[in-house]
Amino acid sequence: MSNVKLAIIYYSSTGTNYQLAQWAAEGAQEAKAEVKVLKVPELAPQSVIDSNPAWKNYVEEVAVCVPTVSLSDLEWADAIIISVPTRFGNMPSQMKQFLDTTGGLWFNGKLVNKVVSAMASAQNPHGGQEATILSLYTTFHHWGAIVAAPGYTNQVIFGAGGNPYGTSVTVDQSGKMVEDVRAIQDAVKHQAKRTITIAEWVKKAN
To answer: What residue stretches are annotated with the Flavodoxin-like domain (predicted)?
Structure first.
């Protein structure tokens, strides 16, 4: 059986979810998966990006080194992990715009039984991380995908805040993670490995 193919799709304005995506890639590669880390297109005006030095620096950093996701990446993948910041308890418009283009794949059954999981960030401990992850899972249910939430399947989840829906982080005004960074890294890698394990089960069943 071929290795699981994982697409890690993220949106980030200053780099937090890019870091989560990189950790997820490390965990998935340790589980022998074939991995693509992909960003969704930026929709914000350049003038707004330029007004925030951290945002501007991040956009320039990934402009060349991180490919932009396409619908063919979703079709290619056996498993998908999405990582986003929260916007008023929901996913950012950049991710929503991309997901709204998946109608053709959905209509043709191309997203059925994809194994999916999600991660999120916010500036407050109760700033919408869980609601954001659950909003992504609502979309996945419509796809007919299989949600691979971490639950409480490993002790590392408690060290990272105990979110059973997906790893989530709190970021302060300077862009630094409030939680124990090593604990977050361990939780992200566990979530990625669990996603790969479930995707392997699905591949074998098919």
So the answer is: 6-189
